[in-house]
Amino acid sequence: MIRFNHVSLTYGNGVSGLKDASFHIPRGQFVFLTGHSGAGKSSILSMIIADQKPTEGEVKVSGYQISKLTAREIPRLRRRLGVVFQDFRLLEYRTVEENVAFALEVTGARHESIPNRVMRALTQVGLASKARGYPKELSGGEQQRVAIARALVNDPHILIADEPTGNLDERATRGIFQLLREINAGGTVVVMATHNMELVRDTGYRTIELKGGRIVYDSGVDDAEAAP
Amino acid sequence: MRHRTPLREALLVFQRTPLLSSLSIASIGFSLFTIGLFFLVALNFRRALDVLAERVEVVAFVLRGTPTEAISQATQDITAFPEVLELRFVTEEQALARARRELVEFREAYRDLEVNPLPASFEIRLKPQFRNAKQAQAVAERLRGFPFIEDVRYGRDWVERLDKLRTMAAVVGLVIGLAFAAVAIVIIGVTIRITVLQRAKEISIMRLVGATNNYIRGPFLIEGAIKGILGGVLAIVMCWVTFYVFRQTTGDTGATLVFFGTLQMTVMMLFAIGIGLGGSLVSVDRQLRSV
Q1: Minimum distance, in Å, between the CA of residue B210 and any CA atom of chain A
Q2: Which pTM does this prediction carry?
Q3: Among B36, B90, B238, B266, which is least packed, fewest CB within 10 Å?
Q4: pLDDT tens readout for residues A156-215
């Protein structure tokens, strides 16, 4: 599903985001990316969603080679991914259901199918009753659930979550994490960047730890090497 | 849940950000108003020059005693010149009568004449596109080729001065017009850029969920075109009000000063729409490259 092969990323201003990173995430896996700010977590995520191209090495996501993606192929890749951010990134002037529908509209989904698919995604995150509300009327945890519904509505192969619980209290954090686990149980790869080591410790999921742009620990290194 | 088409999306922006949208339309309107006013002045100046150019006339004086047949033949030949709009043959008697009528200060001198000193002549008015020194000179040279033509006059100095004035007006008009247009494009571009920047978050979300660049551009282009249309209409209305007030103030009845015709207004509207579309396209594409 996701393969990094000796990948380095240096930003335009000369700052190094990632150095010689190699790992493989197979279908159905839940992976934590951990490390301090600037460790390289966001660099990995930004290459997975093709927001950045590697300076060296090769990144393959769902069959697409990121460094060779054309401008036309980037949207196609992103439709196979769901992305969730710490700051939710919802559009305040749209209702909850419109925010979720937005992800379908931009992909040219059939209009008749949109309401059902939106409602299914909102039901999955437990927010069907708030479909007509606006984001500002919701709690942080609920807003993140809307963002997750938006990420899920296209039935992505991979869900990328960049510090999805960073702005949430303990209870909401647990709720969001449980939701991500359920999504993963359905076969979707989940890659979650987090600072929350408590969350990481409680689960048996694979953890890739980064420091100064390098991978310093990968609990699933054997799986990765064994994978095709 | 209502489906959002690019048109509906564009129209909702006006509802969501009425102040910013109004400011964009006003900026397009006022920028085009400035250009419009300048071109209105240029249009009327050019019209005044054209009225002056109507006086460009080539006069060929005929030798005394030229046979009538020769005059008739020459009349046909000269009328066939491509430059000639109108040809009039003025006999010696008609020339004298006109001199007595028009040259009041010499009326006494002309009254007692026993011999008419004034020659017969061909008076030639040129077609509008030939009313310049070069063409008048060419017609004069051809007329001198007739053996019975004594002299040809076309007010050379005056026509050359008119030519210079026209060239200068065209160059100054073009340079200032382009400068005004450039300033308008910059002002409008900055205004549209602000509206796009205000929606940077929306653009970045669209990209993240897999929208193609064309999909993202759609509502912005429609919005730009609508702003262009409204700004263009605003500019034309302001130009007309200014023109009307000026005409009232100067007491012009409509015979001297002219307003834009359909063609000029269409060009102005197309420019407004083009600038709205172009500004939006450039701003969105810049934003697309940065997210």
Answers
A1: 4
A2: 0.72
A3: B266
A4: 999 999 999 888 888 889 899 999 999 999 999 999 999 888 888 878 899 999 999 999
Angle, helices A140-152 vs A96-105, to 10°: value is 20
Which chain B residue's Cα is nearest to A103?
A: B209
Statement: residue B191 has pLDDT above 90 = no
* Residues A196 and A226 sit within 8 Å (Cβ to Cβ): no
Rounded mean pLDDT of chain A?
A: 90
ipTM: 0.80
Express each pLDDT in B85-95 by its tens digit.
Answer: 999 999 988 88
- Say which of B16, B208, B209 has its CB closest to residue A93: B16
- Per-residue pLDDT tens digits for B264-278: 999 999 999 998 898
Do residue B1 and residue A107 have CB atoms under 8 angstroms apart? no
A190 contacts A1 by C-beta, under 8 angstroms: no
**Lookup: tokens for B253:** 């009845």
Tokens 């006109």 map to which residue?
B98
Tell me the nearest-neighbour CA distance from B233 into chain A, angstroms: 30
Instruction: Check A78 against B4: CB less than 8 A apart.
Output: no
- Quote the CA–CA distance of B291 and B288 in Å, as a whole number: 6
B210 neighbourhood in chain A, CB within 8 Å: 75-79, 81, 103, 106-107, 154
Contact B209 A111 (CB under 8 A): no
What is the pLDDT averaged over residues A57-86? Answer: 91
Beta carbons of B32 and B184 less than 8 angstroms apart: yes
Per-residue pLDDT band for B33 (boundaries 50, 70, 90) equals: very high
